[in-house]
Each structure stands twice: as structure tokens, then as C-alpha cells.
Amino acid sequence: MKKLVLFSTLILAALVLFACGAAQPTKELKDARAAYQDASQGKAAELAPDKLLSAKQALDRAEGAFQDSPGSYKEKSLSYIAQRMAQLAAAIGSQYDAQKAAQKAEQDYKDAQDELRKAALDELKANQEKLEKVRKEMAAQAGEASQKLKAQEAELEARQKELMAEKAARADAEKKLAAAMKSLEEIAKIKEEQRGLVITLSGAVLFASGKSELLPIAQTQLEKVAEVLQQQSPDKKMVVEGHTDSVGKDSDNMRLSQARADSVRSYLVTKGVKAERITAVGKGSSVPIADNKSAEGRANNRRVEIVVSKQ
Description:
The protein is α+β, with helices and mostly antiparallel strands.
């Protein structure tokens, strides 16, 4: 009988030991472990280490409860707390990361202001809409960003004023150009052609017969031409064309027309026209605008044309 009791006791003890060895963590503890694993691999490790440490300590307490009393209410309660603390650490890490992203977005936006200075007035409205969108996004991420966005809005308003000033300056330049063109019309023929703006000057008032040196009166006229040319768009090219009548040899006429075109170009350069924007070409008698049989026609053919390209 004693042997039977002893054998039963040993069997019961073995069953108890087996049950303890095979004990599994509760779902709450598994969830807490997974939550801590996620938090430790996220931004919390870098940006919220104190919160992650608290979550680890809470998890350790839950693990201790599991070792002491597997499946107990204490294990589940401590596991639930550990899970929530791990989730909190992960959320705070994500929040800090979002704040860093907001600060970077703000700096990127400031850098973009220099580029916006080159934008046209019709782009300003789109930029303001973009700013409003960015302002809302940043306000959702961090309340302090709203004050900085107000400063950026003020900067955009200043930019708008600058653009208005630039527009006024352009209008003033156009007004000056119109006045210069009107003054030029008194001494030259001006017309728009397919090749561009053509300014025609009579050769008789520019040069002595058969010569390529500018007459004194020619310099006064060319100063007005230079004023008009300097106010043209910087990307426009110019060509000075020299023309003669058909009297004389073609080779002589070609040399004379080239020399006269060079003289006009050189003088315009001395008056501020950029040398790289203007070239000189001698056309000789190859492009008449009147009949060379009459004195009046020949006089009209002896001319200098300055062509300003459309682009």
C-alpha cells in the first residue's frame, strides 16, 4: 500500500512538473512582446529611448509574472500595461519623427523662396495655394509650425510687392522705348517685317560719296539708334546691313557696303550696344528697294538697314 501511495505521489509530481514546463505565455504577453519588438525597431529607439526603456521594464515585470504564475491575472494585467507602454513609445517616436520631417519641410520651403523670385506673376497664386496646403500639413504635425508659416506668408507678400515693382519697372522701360522709337522715326524708316524690326537709314546722311567713314551728323542719328537697340530684349540679335546702288563694279560695291556696315556696327558698340549681339554684313547692290535707273531710286538703294531679330 505504501508503495502504491509513493508511486502515485511521484506520478503526480511528474505531471505537475510537466505542466509547468509546458506552460505557454498568454495572448496578452505575446502581444506585449510583439509591441515592444515593433517599438524597438522603429523610431522610438532613437527619438524616445526613455519611453522604450519604461516599456522594457514593464515587459520584464510581465515576464516575471509569467515565470511565477503562468496564465494568471497578474501576468495578463502586466502584459497589457507593457503592450500599451510599448505602443506609446512607438507613437511618441513617430510623432518626434514627424516633427523632424516638418522642420525639414520648412527648411526646404525657405530654400525654394529664392527660386520663386524668378517665377512670373501668374505663378504667384499657385505658390500661395501650395503654401496654404503645406501650412495645413505642418499645422497637423506640429502646432508650433503655424507661427513660422505666418512668417513665410509675409515673405511671399513681400515677393508679390517686388514682382509688382518689377512690372512697373518693365512698364517704365517700355514707355522709354516707345519714346525712343518715336524720336527715331524722325530720322529713319522703321517697319516690322518677317525677319524682325527693320531700321533703315539713308546712306547720304551717314557717309560721303564712295566713303565708309561716318559723317558728323551720322553720329547724332546713330546715338538715337543705339538708345533704341539697348532697350531691346537681351536675347535679340541684330544685323547691320550695308547696301549700295548698282553704279560701279559689284566687287567694289560689296567692299564698300561691308565697310559701311562695319563702321555703323563699331559706332553702335561704342555707344553701349553689346558687341556679341550685333554683326555687320555687306550686301552690295544685291537687294535693291527701288529702281536703279533713276537718281531717286539709286539714292534709296544707298542705305544702311539695322535688323533686330524677333527672338
